[in-house]
Amino acid sequence: MKQRKKATDKPKKTQRSYFNPYETTTPKRATSRNTYQQYVALTGSDERSKKASLKRSKTASAKKPSNKNATKQRTTQKAKPVLNENLSPEQRRAKMRQKVKVTKAQRLKMRRRRQFQMVLRVTLVMCLTIGMVWGGILLKEFLTKPTISTQIVKMGTLDTSNQFEGIIFRNEKVVYSEESGNVRYVIAEGEKVKKDGTVYVLVDEKNLVTTTSEKEKVDAEIYNNAENDAAISNNQDERHNLDQEVKSHLEDFYTNRYEDSTSYIYTLRSQLDSSVTNRTNLYATEQEEKNQELVALKEQLETDLGNYQKGKAAADSGIISYRMDGNETEDVKEAIETLTYKTYNKIKRTSSISTLGQSEINSGDPIYKVILNNEWYIVTYVDPKEAEEYTEGQMYTINFDELGGQAVNFSLDSKKEEENRVQLIFKTSNQINDFLGSRTVKFSIGEKATSGLKIPKQAIVEQNLIKIPTQFCVDVEGKTTVYRKKGEITEAVELNVQYTQDDMQYIRQDLTDVNNIQVNDILVNQADGSTYQISEVETKQGVYVTNNKVAKFKEIEIVAQSDEYAIVKNTGKSQLKEMDKIISNPKSIKIDQLIDDTKIENE
């Protein structure tokens, strides 16, 4: 007979826990024997169950049921095991596995759930890892991005001048009258006179008036006759020049009409007298053949006039002036060498310009002065620190704001230290006539109110640019390209052109990339086979313009600058234009860099 295999001899099947998918248990076959013992072994509640049963029995006995239903209920309660609330989690799971039978569909469902949970966990870990890595990259980029500021270029002005006060020295000689009498000036203010030339005359007033009246009548008759013959005159050019001369004198008179002195009136009178005399002489020459008697009478009257007035000649040649203040000197170099700061201040306080030109003069009175040459000087005192900006022999533009804003070029003739000050002496030979009536002046050195494109100095950068003739550049698919010869090979190299000027392409010199165009490279013109060896490199000042979100270099031409700002031309070599957006702090910026790779402070 075949022996019947025991239940315990069957191969054990593993079953996954419902509560813990990774824990496996071996299911046990339930039998009718030793059921209570198995329960006790599983629950570990032998003694506690007995006590609980005993307690329920006592409670049931106390009630003493009188019918069979009560007895049956009591028997049922004794047979039903009582669960212990103090079971451990492992014991509870073991107990549940015995009672719950898991089907194949449920196991498949649990397997899918475990797979989904696994995929979910892996996905969450991957997302978290990617997020942390990406966040780290963004943080690093944010921390390492250069910080820039941008601004719009606009027109502006810049005053780079320094303000001073000074006194003027000239080589000037004062002339005093040797006689008394009525004075007629021949030379006007600011006009030059030759040596022995007549400056003024002393006149016999009574006879002079009579003779002058007769001469004026003769001149008027000659003048009218000449005017009637104007259409047939052979001196049309001379007539036109005389008209322009009178017009110029009247314009000067109109310009100076608000001056405090009245010297300009005498100047106009003298100028008009001279113009009338010249015109009369011209007309007399024209009428000499037609009216000989009239011309002869005019000559006789002129001779009489000469006898009634004594002309006074100049002992030295130079520029005549009728303005004085008592500080004139013939030897300007000696006067400056002996000048002290105390004397300098005294002249500034006490100098007062007076105008000569009276009609009557007494013997010994000053009658005029002559400036012996065109050289003149301005002396001023400055602090030693301020004096360091100025160098002997260098040219400087001096602006005179109180004299109509005139600008004169001076050279610094000398510097001399005196106690805690430095004496600056500026010298020039220009425009002396405009300052004949001045002794003390206020002036500034440097460009004043220069206009142009105003930019911060820190925005200025320098770039080395290689020059390539435009004829060696070709367009390949919309990009500027040149052909470079290396040995026996000719290769195409794309150019990043910064700008074009005078048939030359300017590209940035990049020494870090050997593939880019470099100095000494040989270019080939594909059209005619000619070659060109690159040799020209220029260092240009410019700024980075970011109109298209890329830092492009634009050349500038600076016309004035201070410690913080510069004025740039918007014409000529300068490529910068109004309303361009520039980087004002480009220290960490490279050419052609994307602005998106930077942090912009002011946007």
TrEMBL record:
UniProt xrefs under Pfam families: Beta-barrel_RND_rel, BSH_RND_rel
Bias type Polar residues, positions: 16-40, 67-78
Residue ranges of domain RND related beta-barrel in the record: 376-445
Residues annotated as signal peptide: none
Spans annotated as Disordered: 1-96
Keywords: Membrane, Transmembrane, Transmembrane helix
Ranges annotated as biased composition (Basic and acidic residues): 1-12
Keyword Ion transport part of the UniProt annotation: no
Ranges where the RND related barrel-sandwich hybrid domain occurs: 172-371
Record-annotated membrane-spanning stretches: 118-139
Name of the protein: HlyD family secretion protein
Organism listed in the record: Candidatus Cellulosilyticum pullistercoris
